[in-house]
Amino acid sequence: MDLEVYPPPDLAIESDVTSKTTLDAYEALRVPEVWIYRDRQLRIYLLQNGNYTQSSISPIFPKLLITEMIPQLVQKAIDEGTSRMLRELKVQLCQLKD
């Protein structure tokens, strides 16, 4: 695949619990940021000098505490339903905009 013609996405998010993609696959595609949600934890990996390093902050969303936020949102969706969680998330995100 020609990455000049078909550039990688800015962000890859993996939350599949039945199959796991290795970071090597994302590295080969040069995806700059990868989020992996597994075992109720979100890990952020950033591609730096050809290798992934773990980070607590997403450069795409630097003002959001993503590694804390996502596990809480997943649990809220399980406990209260996805629709309710998404409505509350929308309100929170709109408040950040203001």
Explain what this protein looks like in three dimensions.
Helix 1 (23-29) links the parallel strand 1 and strand 2. This protein is an alpha+beta fold and 98 residues long. Helix 2 (66-80) runs antiparallel to helix 3. It has three helices and four strands, in the order E-H-E-E-E-H-H. It has one domain.
SSE layout and pairing:
Layout: E1 11-14, H1 23-29, E2 33-38, E3 41-48, E4 51-55, H2 66-80, H3 82-97
Parallel strand pairs: 1-2
Antiparallel strand pairs: 2-3, 3-4
Helix pairs in contact: 2-3
Brief summary:
The chain has 98 residues and is an alpha+beta fold. It is built from three helices and four strands; from the N terminus they run E-H-E-E-E-H-H.
By DSSP, the count of extended strands is 4
So what's the oligomer here? single chain
* Major beta sheet, strand line-up: 1-2-3-4
* Overall tally of structural domains: 1
Q: Could you give the distance between the termini?
A: 42 Å
State the order of secondary-structure elements, H for helix, E for strand.
EHEEEHH
